[in-house]
Write a structure and sequence with these properties.
- By secondary structure, this protein is mainly β.
- It has helices at 2-15, 23-29, and strands at residues 20-22, 32-40, 45-53, 58-66, 69-72, 88-90, 96-108, 113-126, 131-136, 143-144, 150-151, 157-159.
């Protein structure tokens, strides 16, 4: 009976494809390191990420570089702990940028196991004030129109 139980457990682990990991191995692998990453938006504006986490494969600590001055993006509580896969879209008037804001973290189900959960969101940043003015989950697949309004994939104005 123990042999059958062991085989069933091995099959369950194989079927979950590694989504369940041992808590200790997660803590050893979860390292955020300093890694300067700059993404030019235009001639005078750039995004700057100060760190990278190899476990989540996300960039963190977002700044805006305006005329060679680095300014930390103001965050609300809902933006804390989010990272980026380096997606961005600058508005036509260059006053706003949409960046991805992903949350990846492990939920600890027991002392031995945890499961990786991911939540995909995005944020609109006011580049003049260097702060987040809107956070979205449903309308991240939208685009800017000629009036610099963020339009959802369904054609609805989400941000003016």
């Amino acid at each position: 009976m123990k042999k059958i139980t062991s085989i069933v457990m091995i099959l369950i682990i194989c079927i979950t494809c590694g989504n369940t990991v041992h808590r200790q191995s997660h803590y050893v692998q979860n390292k955020t390191v300093k890694k300067d990453t700059v993404i030019a938006l235009n001639d005078t504006l750039s995004l700057y990420y100060a760190s990278y986490n190899s476990d989540t494969k996300l960039w963190y600590n977002l700044y805006i570089i305006k005329k060679k001055k680095r300014i930390k993006v103001g965050k609300g509580n809902e933006y804390n702990g989010t990272g980026s896969e380096l997606f961005s879209r600058l508005s036509p008037n260059a006053n706003y940028v949409v960046v991805d804001a992903l949350i990846k973290d492990y939920v600890h189900e027991s002392d031995k196991d945890s499961t990786l959960h991911e939540n995909y969101t995005c944020a609109i940043i006011d580049l003049k004030k260097v702060k987040i003015v809107k956070q979205m989950q449903q309308d991240c697949d939208g685009s800017w129109n000629k009036k610099s309004q963020w339009i959802s994939a369904g054609g609805k104005v989400v941000f003016k």
